[in-house]
Design brief:
Length: 313
């Protein structure tokens, strides 16, 4: 596997303009020409190919960023990375990345190096960054542009920015002649009741629902909001559990949802203070959490209505 490598030279705290003009697509062209290592504080970095392999849950792959301290003094290095596909950062035990904002509708992370970001002269270290695209694997290869990596050092600041692409391997294993991957821009979530309201523990009522996500628009998670709630009622917890709930608000357990995925869950509501209020209608709405507010493809199936009274049958 060929890496795309760039070496940067600085004079004082400034990089030469020639070394900032980086336009190569990392990993899919031949190796870029490297500047002579005649500066005592030069550094290099390279990016591997990012190939996304089809799996049972979308596509998965890793980009590897290798930084080498070619200077004559110890320095600290880190890098910023923008995802090539919106909501595709997957984290993972080997990724040492923290959120660092948004760029053109895509998430940005700042990442350190495994084992520590301080490199001695001549030392090199590789950081893997994991990606997952929650779309249905295709019979043809695809490509998505728009990712970039900016490497920084504590002493010199930004050492340069290099763009990179993500290639989606087809179900037959091909990477040749890829089509452009086009991600949905509008979410398509829906919710329905999945059974009757029943008694739950701790003086609660159990409300089962089914949530579906019918597209690959970017999402961080799906949110639920119940209103209006009778006095004394609130979502106490969900099953499966998914962390704290707030009044009538809860998240759908399991995090990001994939195109075509369905999840069954139950919400446990505390019973109203006044038993007569158990017949009060409650609307439960599902919405998609993302960095931008977008309208659902079909808002009419985003809400179900129920009450906390038990069925007479």
């Amino acid at each position: 596997m060929e890496d795309q490598t760039h070496m940067f030279r600085k004079t004082g705290s400034l990089l030469t303009a020639a070394l900032l003009g980086l336009t190569a697509t990392v990993g899919w062209a031949g190796p870029a020409a490297a500047a002579p290592a005649d500066s005592a504080d030069a550094a290099t970095f390279s990016l591997s190919r990012l190939v996304l392999e089809p799996t049972e849950r979308g596509y998965q792959g890793k980009l590897r960023v290798t930084i080498t301290n070619t200077g004559d003094s110890t320095d600290v290095f880190y890098f910023q990375i923008r995802e090539p596909v919106a909501a595709s950062f997957a984290g993972g035990p080997e990724s040492h990345c923290d959120p660092d904002g948004v760029s053109e509708g895509r998430l940005v992370r700042t990442c350190g190096l495994p084992g520590g970001s301080e490199l001695a002269p001549g030392e090199s270290r590789t950081a893997p960054v994991e990606f997952q695209v929650l779309t249905t694997p295709r019979s043809y290869p695809m490509i998505a542009d728009g990712g970039f990596v900016t490497v920084n050092s504590a002493s010199a600041g930004a050492l340069g920015t290099v763009p990179f692409s993500a290639r989606f391997r087809s179900l037959s294993g091909s990477l040749s002649n890829p089509q452009t991957y086009v991600q949905d821009t509008q979410p398509d979530a829906s919710i329905e009741l999945a059974g009757p309201v029943t008694d739950g523990p701790e003086n609660t009522r159990r409300v089962p629902v089914r949530v579906r996500y019918a597209g690959d628009a970017p999402n961080l998670r799906l949110e639920l909001n119940a209103a209006p709630l009778p006095a004394g009622s609130a979502i106490l917890y969900t099953e499966p559990t998914n962390g704290p709930t707030y009044g009538g608000e809860a998240s759908v357990p399991g995090g990001q949802m994939m195109a075509g995925e369905e999840r069954d869950l139950a919400l446990f509501f505390t019973r109203p203070t006044d038993p007569a209020d158990e017949s009060t209608p409650i609307s439960l709405e599902v919405s998609t959490s993302w960095i931008a507010t977008t309208t659902d493809v079909d808002p009419s199936d985003n809400t179900v209505t129920f009450n906390l009274a038990l069925s007479a049958s």
